[in-house]
């Protein structure tokens, strides 16, 4: 099968389109023919092996890449099933969040890590969902405990995670304020934000006040400034942050956790779980897609032969929504 192989950490040019052995499903495994995948910051962190501090915390980031094939978002069709698989059969449309292996024509997924693709979504749209939407769901549902009538602020509202966070916040009945750059204000409004703050015109930490939760996807304010926008007892939910070569955004996350301890402000660092938990989350999200309450925002599409360009674009950190790669 065709796959992008990574022999050593480095820039997108290190992703080499080559031939890899087509896997065959063992007991409890499903072989999926990948129709589309999408690019996440997770992918380029694993491609570059950065931040370097993460190499001590993540098995996929040692001195050399832990996995030769990157890619965590899968939308495709079941090609074959291994012994004991009962929930899926050949031809079923599926989607999944996997730790690695999606930048290929085929990937093996454990049966319990797989979910049925929402009927209303194309493979291209479904590929935009797993990492970004599951992260947004975990941040809003578990970390912020978002409830109807609350006011939530999403910083980084126009990116992959942010566009899902805004829509999920609204679907949960909250009033959402989004923070993004000026050119994405209309996009963020169009997906359901009641208010939008252009961070290039004003720092939201100066004016925004009284929020029940700050979902901080961009990680741009200092943890102390972030605190000012919350009502007493409001939650600071750290999802991501500007990435650096050595430590960032890990220092930001540690700082936030420390602030939580010192100030008794509820603080959570969102941690998406890949596997059976993410399959359950995808199954929970499916009705929201099928009812039209949430729609993936696809910023760009790339053919498989141009996957390194797609990674290069996402690395710049300003994609308005998700970047999808069609796997021929
Ligand atoms: N904790 C977890 O489990 C988990 C899981 C997935 C992702 N993440 C992290 O979450 C972060 C976002 O991921 P993503 O997939 O959404 O990335 P993305 O698609 O690249 O989106 C990044 C967004 O950040 C916005 N942005 C950049 N600078 C900003 C600033 N100063 N203020 C406000 N917004 C700003 C950009 O909007 P403009 O173009 O409008 O500037 C862009 O839309 C990354 O750090 C990623 O590693 C964490």
Write the layout of secondary structure elements.
Layout: E1 2-6, E2 15-19, E3 29-38, H1 41-48, E4 73-81, E5 93-97, E6 106-110, E7 114-116, H2 123-127, H3 130-143, E8 151-155, H4 160-171, E9 175-180, H5 185-190, E10 195-198, H6 204-207, E11 211-216, H7 223-227, E12 230-238, H8 250-263, E13 267-269, H9 276-290, E14 298-303, H10 307-315, E15 322-326
Parallel strand pairs: 8-9, 8-11, 9-10, 11-12, 12-13, 14-15
Antiparallel strand pairs: 1-2, 3-4, 3-6, 3-15, 4-5, 5-7
The protein binds NADP nicotinamide-adenine-dinucleotide phosphate (NAP).
Please report the total strand number as a whole number: 15
Overall structural class, as computed from helix and strand content, comes to alpha/beta
The largest β sheet comes out as: 7 strands, mixed
Going by CATH, the homologous superfamily of the largest domain would be Medium-chain alcohol dehydrogenases, catalytic domain
The helix fraction, in percent, is 25-40%
Bound molecules: NADP nicotinamide-adenine-dinucleotide phosphate
CATH topology of the largest domain: Quinone Oxidoreductase, Chain A, domain 1
CATH architecture of the largest domain: Alpha-Beta Complex
Notes on the structure:
This protein is of the alpha/beta class and about 325 residues long. The protein has ten helices and 15 strands. It has helices at about 40-50, 125, 130-145, 160-170, 185-190, 205, 225, 250-265, 275-290, 305-315; strands spanning about 1-5, 15-20, 30-40, 75-80, 95, 105-110, 115, 150-155, 175-180, 195-200, 210-215, 230-240, 265-270, 300-305, 320-325. α5 links the parallel β9 (about 175-180) and β10 (about 195-200). α3 crosses α4. The relative contact order is 0.16. The structure holds NADP nicotinamide-adenine-dinucleotide phosphate. NADP nicotinamide-adenine-dinucleotide phosphate binds near residues 135, 156 and 161.
